[in-house]
Structure formats: C-alpha cells, structure tokens
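Exercise (ungraded).
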Amino acid sequence: MKRTFAIPLVLMSVMGWQVKAIAHGVGITYEATEAIALQANYDSGEPMAEAQVSVYSPEDPSTPWLTGTADASGRFVFAPDPSIPGNWEVQVRQAGHGEILNIPVGGEAGVLATSADGSSEPGASAADDESDSQIASGIGDNLSLPQKGLMAVSVIWGFVGTALFFLARKK
Amino acid sequence: MHIPDGILPASVCIAGYAIAAPFAWYSLRQINRLKDPTEELPKASLLTAAFFIASSINIPVPPSSVHLVLNGLLGSVLGYFAFPAILVGLFFQAIMFGHGGLTTLGVDAVMMGVPALVAHHIFRVRHAFRQKLGEKLATNIFAFLAGALGLGLSAVIFFFLVITNIPSGFDAQTEQAAVYGLTLAHLPLMLIEGTFTLLLVAFLQRVKPELIERRG
C-alpha cells in the first residue's frame, strides 16, 4: 500500500519542480546588427577549421574582449561594439600557426563606419564594404596563384643564375 | 612548420636571433676555411632554390597537411653551407609568401638550420660503418637517417617552442591538442624526407660522387 502511494508522490514532486522551472520564462529578442565575418585559411588554401579566435578591443589590448572558435570552414563572425572605435585586433591561432589582424572599426575610414550624426548607415556601408572590408592579412594573401608562381620562378632563377655564375667562373 | 610573426613573444624572437647568429658565424668560418669556398656555391645555390620552393609543396597527412622542409637533405649534401642556405631561403619565403616572418627569422633559422648541421654530422658517421656495411649501403642508410632526423629534430623544436608559448587569450588544451596533432603528422614526413635524401645522395653518388665526398 505504501509503495503505491509513493510513486505518484514522487511523480508529483518531479512534475511540480519541472512546471516551476518552465514558469521562469525566457525572453529572447533579436535585432539586426553589423558584424565582421572572418575567413581564416592556411596559405595552402585549406580553411583553419576550429581555429581559436581572440578578439581584443581597442580599449584593452591585453585581455580578450571575446574568445571563440571558427567553424569547420574557418569562418568566424563577431559583432564589435561600435561605441569603441579604433583598431580591433583579432588573433587566429591553430597549432602554432596564426595571424594577427587589425580591423579598424568606426570612425571615418573604418569598417562599420558611423555617419555624422552617429547612427550607422547599413545601406551605405554595405555598398563600399565590398571593397573596403577585404582586409587581407599577411603578405601572400592577396596574390593570385599565377602571381605567386611568377615570384617563385623569379627567385629560383636568381638562385640558378648564381649557381651558373660561379660554375662559369670555375672554368 | 614555419613560425609566423605574432605567435611568439618578443623575448623568444630576440633569443632566436641571438642563437642563430653564432651558428651563422661558425658556419661561415668553416666555409671560409675551405681551400676554395666558391667551389661549392653552385651546389649550395641550387639547393637553396630547392629549399625555398619545398615549403610550397604540401603533402596531405590527414587530418591536416604538412609541407616539405628538406633541411636534413641540405645538411647532408651541403655540410656547413646548409645554415646560410637555409637562412637565405627562409628570408625569401618570408618576404615573398609571408611564410614565416621577419621577426621570427632567427627562431626559424635555429629550428631548421641547427638540425641541418646535426644531419650533416649524422651523415658523416657513415665513414665509421664503411667497412662493416660496405660503401654503398652505409651511405644510403646514413643519408636516410640524416634526412629523417634533421626534419624530426626540427619538429621537436617547433613543438616545444609553440607548446610553451600559448598566449593567455587562448584555450591551452585545444591548442595543445592541435600542436600534438601537427607534430605527429611530421612522422610520415620524416620517412618521405629521409627517402628523398637517400635518392638524391644515391643519384649524386652514381653521376658525380665527388659532390658528396668532398664535404667529408
């Protein structure tokens, strides 16, 4: 007899607790914001999947403002605080490989530029972001494959030329 | 395997230059002692070109990929010329492709150049085994060992440099796991580079044996 009473009691207590938890409602609102999307690739062209990313605000360059990881295709999106204009520093790192990228935010020249009255203009910035926001880090990143190939061939020819020079002198 | 700018703290970069300098000086002095230092230059120059382009050749080792380094090969074929050759090669890689960096040039030179000199000495050990194993076999075995261990030592130095310098902003465990993974990926590369060195040395021995014999 006692046991048959105990089961509904236990059930009631569990259910009651759950109902109570649901009663703490969650309010989620959303707004469209301007964000910076990074694409991190190795120079072999492979994405830096799950690379660690640290974002430093211009106000405090020593402690990270935000840390996270890139997704499987090396993409990372974050929304900087537009009220802190300046150079936002983004560090991407994986297995001792990585890069530091400075992204100017706000101000006249930066991405997510604010207009004179302080409000951001999504339409205007989206138009010129196409060209402006393509900030490439590193030296080789904005070179096409033929350009890289030509550079490699030039340097190699330099070495071969040096070899030929000293070979000719020997004779 | 090149360590780019911004990964290591400034003190380590400076230490890298400080360690690389005496090695460069010592290598140049050894070269200067040769009867005719320019005699070896064509070979050194061609292998510098090979070293320069090797890092652009990626070899997929799942899940990541590694690139050729060839420092063990340079060490065994060039001897003391290997260190300046690697220094010049690294400089061009940093300037042209952003592979490595100028602040870490010293660190990278130590990481790849010093194992190259070690490889040179490993390759020399073949003389001791000449009687026991026969000329050809001893050369082949020690060419392979020099190529493989030169790269392996570089991978070990890379591992310690990176694992001890994880900045506070990053999750150390994730980064450590990634570094372990990348270092392990260099094991198959050791076999590849060892074989490369063996093939090149065997080829040189057949067509122009004085090229490898002269350097002792």
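Further reading is listed at the end of the chapter. For now, observe: Chain B has a mean pLDDT of 87. The longest strand of chain B covers residues 58-61.
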